[in-house]
């Protein structure tokens, strides 16, 4: 009898797990506006304030893992995993780098603050100003080149931690129609990044052959963090843009654009 009850319980759990997986795989987009989205009107005064408030509440909900449908589509966001980023920077006075970042873990997205959210009436493009109190990316690196006149060649564990990171993000979209709903289809994401403080650690610099020079180099990078940040700005910018471009297009296609902007213009027919 005990074995029968155990089999029934396991069958119950398995059935509900299969139902959840199937519903997650079948989910395309929200057909009814969730309560955590505030709808604004682009043709009324105060739209930017309304949009800023709306996007702030929306992203907090998303990045804190409170929307299982989003988690099923884009994965866990805090922390967020990235497989690999390849980067190449030549002919730069501050740095010449060829780098591969892999097995990355990004933390700090859940503390996002939206400082401003503007939308163009002309082309439906978004200008969004974001603030992260603390942003950290940790994983494996392989790097060859020079930074601040120092020749670097190494691979191993690394982290970059940025305090008070400001991001200005420009998102290009065009409005598409599906099943009577309008969606923002993202075609490009560009970001500008700045910070008030950065710390970092790169293990096995110089191939790991001289630990004393490795230690002093990391200390120098942290002491002169502003110069180091400027040297790595293209790499940091590309990493942040990569993160945003992995998230925003998928999320935008899950929510009809009119959930955010009630009077969004209809797309012009060719």
Automatic annotation (TrEMBL):
Keywords attached to this entry: Biological rhythms, Signal
UniProt record, GO biological process: circadian rhythm
Gene3D superfamilies in alphabetical order: Haemolymph juvenile hormone binding protein
Alphabetized Pfam families for the sequence: JHBP (PF06585)
Domain of life: Eukaryota
TM region(s), chain numbering: none
Position of the signal peptide: 1-26
Stored InterPro entries: Haemolymph_juvenile_hormone-bd, To_sf
Chain coiled-coil ranges: none
GO CC aspect terms: extracellular space
Family to which the UniProt record says this protein belongs: Belongs to the TO family.
PANTHER family according to UniProt: IP09473P-RELATED, PROTEIN TAKEOUT-LIKE PROTEIN
Protein name: Hemolymph juvenile hormone binding protein
Name of encoding gene: 106087931
